[in-house]
Amino acid sequence: MGEGDSQLILFKGKQIRQVFHDDEWFFSIVDVIEAITGTERPRQYWNDLKKQLTEKEGFSELSDFIVQLKMPSSDGKKYNTDAVNTETLFRIVQSIPSPKAEPFKKWLAKVAYERIQEFQNPEIAIKRALLIYKVKGYSDEWINARIQTIVSRKELTREWAKRGIKEGMEYAILTDIISKGTFGLGIQEHKKLKGLNLRTHNLRDHMSPLELALTMLGETTTAELARNTDAQGFKDNEYAATTGGKIAGDTRKSIEKKLGKPVVTRQNFLNSSEEKQEKLPSK
């Protein structure tokens, strides 16, 4: 994991955002409050709780450990959000009167332990992702391809971070360039083709194994080109992304010529409430 990497974790069906900062995971306080209390106004609840805690001895010390970190929101953008590490979160949760507080603390302790293990041994994180996809019903072939794209993506973003690319907008622009070169479609266009929600669905979780393989080729090639040319700044890396995408795109066209059909399809892995199996969105 690298500085600023983010993940979603679940407690009782509620999503909690976390960001890797100063070599440990920091959790969104408002997400935790919503998960524990069920309130529809978690930000207001947190503001009120801060005022209450201010009157208690020791909160001034506690507030020193609250940091603002950029976390993804439902609109796809990242905003500064109050976040704390595991130890500080325990202290805050103790002040929340809810029957879910104790189960949450046990769950948090387990999650924190698992994250420490993953940091020390990344293979554990990969195994956990593998298990999650297996439970969701994905095939072994698909899971293998998906895990490889996770690894290649991490490698690419690591290169971008070292070469002065700003996380967020510039990452998104370069990713879109690779996608257009590889598939002839930008990320949003690809999602629309598959009938996915533009904000909530992860495109790669709905790609075919062949689409995933080409995605990995485009990103791995881009990372290698950036290293070989010592690309610095957006312009240099834009060239690497364009070239990497074109190489993957040329490969796609060769495959399509042999197969006699397009690689990019409307196929997705959305589950039908009745059939619980793969389906195609209606044309």
Describe the structure.
The structure is a single chain. The protein is of the alpha+beta class and 283 residues long. The protein has two domains: 6-120, Roll (Mlu1-box Binding Protein, DNA-binding Domain); 140-259, no CATH class. It has helices spanning 29-37, 42-54, 59-63, 86-93, 101-120, 122-135, 140-162, 169-183, 187-193, 209-229, 233-259, and strands at residues 6-11, 14-21, 24-28, 67-72, 78-84. Strand 2 and strand 3 (24-28) form a beta hairpin. The longest helix has 27 residues, at 233-259. Residues 15-114 form the Bro-N domain.
Descriptive tags:
single chain, 283 residues, alpha+beta, Mlu1-box Binding Protein, DNA-binding Domain, 2 domains, five-stranded antiparallel sheet, 5 strands, disordered C terminus
Quick description:
The protein has 283 residues and is of the alpha+beta class. It is 57% helix and 11% strand.
